[in-house]
Amino acid sequence: MLALLAGASAGVIAGLLMAPDTGEQTRTGIKKWANKLSKDLEKNLQTGLDEIKNMSSDAMNKMGGMMDDAKKATAGAAGKSSSTGSTGSSTGSNTGTSTGGSTVTNV
After folding, report:
1. Could you tell me if 97 and 104 are in contact, meaning their C-beta atoms sit under 8 angstroms apart?
2. How far apart are CA 31 and CA 64, in angstroms?
3. Which of 21, 67, 69, 107 could form a disulfide with 25 if both were Cys (CB 3.0 to 4.6 A apart)?
4. Each residue's pLDDT tens digit, 51-103
5. What percent of the chain has pLDDT over 90?
6. pLDDT, greater one: 31 or 84
7. DSSP code per residue over the chain
8. C-alpha span between 33 and 51 (Å, rounded)
9. At what angle do helices 23-81 and 2-18 cross, to 10 degrees?
């Protein structure tokens, strides 16, 4: 893209300098062209900056939402793990239960 712009600029300048106009007319034409190019570049840069700001803002909003979700998930997990375990009395009987190949014995 930049090479295309540079090539077009060089072509315009060469064309203006070789034109049969007087020096003053040529300089006036170059000034007008340079001013137009400057305004176009400024407009394109501003548009690009606005797009970057919007994308950055969107990304920050998504990150904020993810952070809120993570905080809620950790708070929920912390609430579940803080529940008290049950205490029971041992009656002296052992009961074996098979779960997936491992035996659980209650004492």
Report:
1. yes
2. 49
3. 21
4. 999 999 999 888 888 888 888 888 877 766 554 554 544 454 455 444 455 55
5. 23
6. 31
7. -HHHHHHHHHHHHHHHHHSSS-HHHHHHHHHHHHHHHHHHHHHHHHHHHHHHHHHHHHHHHHHHHHHHHHHHHHHHHHHHHTSPPP-----S--EEEEETTEEEEE-
8. 27
9. 170
